[in-house]
Amino acid sequence: MKKRLLIVLSVMLITGEISLAQPVQQPTIEDFKPSTKNQPGQEYPMVNSQGYARFRIIAPEARSVVVSLGPGGTRGGTPLSKADDGSWMGTTAGPLEEGFHYYHLTVDGGIFNDPGTLNFYGSTRWESGIEIPAHDQDFYALKDVPHGKVQQILFPSTSTNTSRRAFVYTPPSYEKDKKKRYPVLYLQHGWGEDETAWSNQGHANLIMDNMIAEGKIKPFIIVMTYGMTNDVKMGGMKNFKIEPFQTVLIDELIPYIDANFRTLADQPHRAMAGLSMGGMETKTITLARPDVFSHYGLLSGGTYAPKDIKDKSKVKLIFLSCGSFENATGVKNATTALKESGINAISYISENTRHEFQTWRRSLYELAQLLFVK
Amino acid sequence: MKKRLLIVLSVMLITGEISLAQPVQQPTIEDFKPSTKNQPGQEYPMVNSQGYARFRIIAPEARSVVVSLGPGGTRGGTPLSKADDGSWMGTTAGPLEEGFHYYHLTVDGGIFNDPGTLNFYGSTRWESGIEIPAHDQDFYALKDVPHGKVQQILFPSTSTNTSRRAFVYTPPSYEKDKKKRYPVLYLQHGWGEDETAWSNQGHANLIMDNMIAEGKIKPFIIVMTYGMTNDVKMGGMKNFKIEPFQTVLIDELIPYIDANFRTLADQPHRAMAGLSMGGMETKTITLARPDVFSHYGLLSGGTYAPKDIKDKSKVKLIFLSCGSFENATGVKNATTALKESGINAISYISENTRHEFQTWRRSLYELAQLLFVK
Known about the structure:
The structure is a homodimer. With about 375 residues, chain A is an alpha+beta fold. Chain A has seven helices and 20 strands.
């Protein structure tokens, strides 16, 4: 019986059904540095070259302090302990994945942000953020290259009876040749995030600046606005309706952008993409209005089936992506099916990342090279 | 002896040396509403029509929760108490002054932000903010008028060997008539704040949009960048040196702005103003470089003496302001002295405000009407 179990386990190991990789505990290397997402002058949280994160919180009279972040995407959390100096300290039990993570503290049962870090809008609130240096972080680094602008605009919206905010990225060349017109990508955030996410967490502007400087892409404009128009803040997605956002986007924002920026204001030069819920919005709106967009991108945001596409001649590109720890097979299979039906479909799988911003930074990097090239 | 004391007290009362006003306690009116600076969907903190603030914090196991904010500018704080539902609640002991206030929580000895509110960069950290509705809040309200843009730019800075961030407000007309050029106001934040303050806390863009829509001012550009260039973050002002910031502003930012925006790029069409430490910077730099700026504004940021001004013909305007709870007499006397020396000096005192953003919002409103009019 014992021998049989060993054989079964051995077969599972060989076929990859189980893995022994995780229990090999490496000693923690003491080369911790402040996270690049810290507030100015703040030492903690720190990260080391292995991807471990170390936290330090001042709360002398607290009974317990727990960080919501733990290794392996489990989000089991990291309880902090009282240190000699009376502060609360702790290090994650293992390395975190590369890139950006949202987190918060639970102090005596109450949820607070880490005073050491900058805040980022996610989960319908401003949360703490930490950055685990990625091996490929160069593509979104702030470099000495010409920089485009990220502009906050307030556009009139009669359907919601207010002035709504959007951010518009214009490439460095936009201010130079005043006659040149540009294609536009409408780029949506995920559930619980807002129009600040793609710049703050995603570094979309730096990704564009760097790729333009390297001659990897032709410059285009990116427009980012709030996609949870009918306020599904707390109740999850069950009350979500696409119509209010579709009206804001198609009838109000796009005409405003075309009137106030030097755009190529036609379907062949207009793309829509979004991450997670923003992908779902992208799918719904691009299918409802094939006359408006020609390039579609779903970033960890589902897939299209060939039968979804009524008029294939109108679709120049379908880009599907996700992290390798998400449903990579689904994305690949959907892409194959689209290709076989004659659609220009391309998939991208981000290695060793989940439903997080590192997946979407990399996806934007890949998508940008495919947009408006034909 | 007793009679003599009474007479002395009576004389002091009549001459205004002491006041009996404060002990008259009004009953709290139960018309509390969420502060306009709350995070989306958050009910607390709330404010009522009298200016009282009410806080509610979830921290079931905490021993004490104190809000740093109290009435009368004393900042004595407001301790919260355990409510029936296990949350911590409390109301300020009196009304807070009109406008925006920074604050934070002390939870079991640790400093955290209120999860209910948005964060604003002040005191060298992102702090909680609350808005007490002001009787004159209309001038910085978001209205259905044409809106200018607030653009984030990253400009090259060889002196600090990095790309530095600035925000640029361009008026609504900027995108319409592509030949028109505009004067520029360089507008600085205070100690511990950064280049986000004038938009986030100050609503500088909305103040401008509203005044332009009403025809109260001629449109101009505003440029806001980080003024604590040599990183005096934690050590207070004692290590502050103006030279690094002056180099960034004069030799790097201004040439970049003049090259990338349609400015009137000469001294008569360039103003500098700042609040608090930004006023000190404004004074030092305008006096050192009278060839660069013609209009000077110190907002709760000190005064100029007539002897400071070497060449009066180069100064088109000196604007000095503060809150009535600050050194209003000093500001008025300095203005009188400047006027008597033949300088176009104008003072403004914001009624019933202190060293806070309501003073500076109102000051910008007044200053904007005086800039570039001659």
